[in-house]
Amino acid sequence: MRPNTMNKFGAVLDDFGMESMLDKLMKDFIRPLSRVFFAEFGGCSLDTHHGFIVEYGIHRDRELGFHVDDSEVTLNICLGKEFSGGELFFRGARCDAHVNSDSQLEEIFDYSHVPGQAILHSGRHRHGAKATTSGKRMNLILWCRSSTFREMIKYQREFAGWCGECRRKKRERERLSIAATKQELLKRRMAL
Ligand SMILES: O=C(O)CCC(=O)C(=O)O
Ligand SMILES: [Fe+2]
């Protein structure tokens, strides 16, 4: 079975008897951290997970295209082994409406994963993995989900505070409104 809809090589760990261990990892370790760092993504109410391994290399997947995860918070552990390439690239968090919008310069962030280390990121943070150019790269991925957050965003109004494009559009509206007010005040002063 494919680990997710994009990677062909890897395995779903929940199918190998690791479901309760990964659930404990989420509840005892990821949820307390996410409560602090990913509060706006439902970090305090993570309640289900999907855990899997992905494998990259010459005879495995080469790279992973730009995407958002089916998760609120993702744990990505680099298991190694020896490889070159495979950098993760991040390009800003987006809501569903803006998932394909351009990235701003300050949102461009590339990261070279180090074997034995882990990163935690929001599932809505758009990312991908560049081509593994030699060796074998293996990662343990834990997609952590919050049913409360998913229910809540159904009723969310247009603006998502955590979406870079929603914020950019809001700033632009504010800028235009301030400019229009200034213009109006200037006109009134001239008419006096
Ligand atoms: O290969 C990686 O490190 C990223 C994997 C990933 O983004 C995913 O499985 O959702
Ligand atoms: Fe991902």
Automatic annotation (TrEMBL):
This is 2-oxoglutarate and iron-dependent oxygenase domain-containing protein icu11. The keyword Signal applies. SMART domains: P4Hc (SM00702). Keywords: Dioxygenase, Iron, Metal-binding, Oxidoreductase, Signal. PROSITE patterns: FE2OG_OXY (PS51471). Pfam families: 2OG-FeII_Oxy (PF03171), OGFOD2-like (PF25238). Residues 47-146 form the Fe2OG dioxygenase domain. InterPro entries: IPNS-like_FE2OG_OXY, Oxoglu/Fe-dep_dioxygenase_dom, Pro_4_hyd_alph. It comes from Stylosanthes scabra. Its cofactor is L-ascorbate. The lineage of its organism: Eukaryota, Viridiplantae, Streptophyta, Embryophyta, Tracheophyta.
